[in-house]
Amino acid sequence: MPAPSCPTSTPTTTEPARATATPTATATAPADGSFRARFGPVALVVTAGVSVQFGAALAVMLMPRAGAAGVVTLRLAAAAVVLLLVCRPKVRGYSRSDWSTVVWFGVAMAGMNGFIYQAIDRIPLGPAVTLEVLGPLVLSVVVSRRLLNLLWAGLALAGVVLLSTHGGGGLGGLDPLGVAFALAAGGMWAAYIVFSARTGRRFPQADGLALAMAVAAVLSLPLGVIEAGSALLRPSTLLLGLGVALLSSVLPYTLELLALRRLPAPTFAILMSLEPAIAATAGFLILNQALSALDAAAIALVIVASMGAVRSQTRLQSSPKSSLKSSRRSRQRN
């Protein structure tokens, strides 16, 4: 489950769109080659991933009090308030098409969070995030249209098949509805990536992200109120909800923003592929969700497939032929 960053231009995720979020996402490490300069940004991204997934684990602990929909409402509402206060987006001067884009971005964001929280309320955190990652992976394969990426897709499919051997009955003993929610979250994650990129081109800085987060919070509010009711206003619930928002949104925003200033975008995207492993670790340490050897192998296959798809996409974009085509297109437009 991604935590959308608040960069200086296009806002996003794992992802291809998130990776291209910052025009300054080129390595600018000092020439001294110190350990901190080389590995500091990597540590920031990994810490952000740990924060997101441990925030999700905390959300699972909050669900008995507020329900999955209630937790989503608390997280999105708190994140929206923070982003609106920090970014202070303008609301005038935009076309109907601009607003349509940001609204659909908010819909994708609400759906992505809503579905994955419903999933982790029913199945372990590690398998849920592994299934969710399939959305961006499929998007990467479709966009690249390369034969090699079919291999990565097949590797990910093998991981899912292996994951289906978990336990017995249903899809390997996992709650079928939980599996469906996780896959739906992956589809919304892919939509999130697409609309995030479009929003970044239409809105300055992170204004579009802040507005979309507000839309997502408004959309989630009725469902949260219906499920949790007055429990959302209990001080203990609000405090835990604030903790979820800080771990899953505010802290990752800050860390990823700092990292993207010094880290190449492809490296950032590959590091985001580690989220299933981080999620499985958080589930084990906080929720006592033990993984079998087959579960771990399945998650590893999906991680390798995601990394491979990102790397092949990056090589395609940086290849001489790709650069030549881009140059020709630029000349034709001029």
Number of strands: 0
Strand content: under 5%
Taking the alpha carbons of the first and last residues, their distance comes to 40 Å
Uncertain runs with pLDDT below 50, 5 residues or more?
A: 5-32, 322-334
Cα-based radius of gyration, to the nearest Å: 19 Å
Overall structural class, as computed from helix and strand content, comes to: mainly alpha
Amount of helix: over 70%
Helices and strands, in N-to-C order? Answer: HHHHHHHHHHHH
The helix count comes to: 12
What is the average of the pLDDT values?
76
Brief overview, please?
It contains twelve helices and no strands. By secondary structure, the chain is mostly helical. The termini are far apart.
Walkthrough of the structure:
The chain is mainly α and 334 residues long. The protein has 12 helices and no strands. Helix 2 crosses helix 10 and helix 9 runs antiparallel to helix 11.
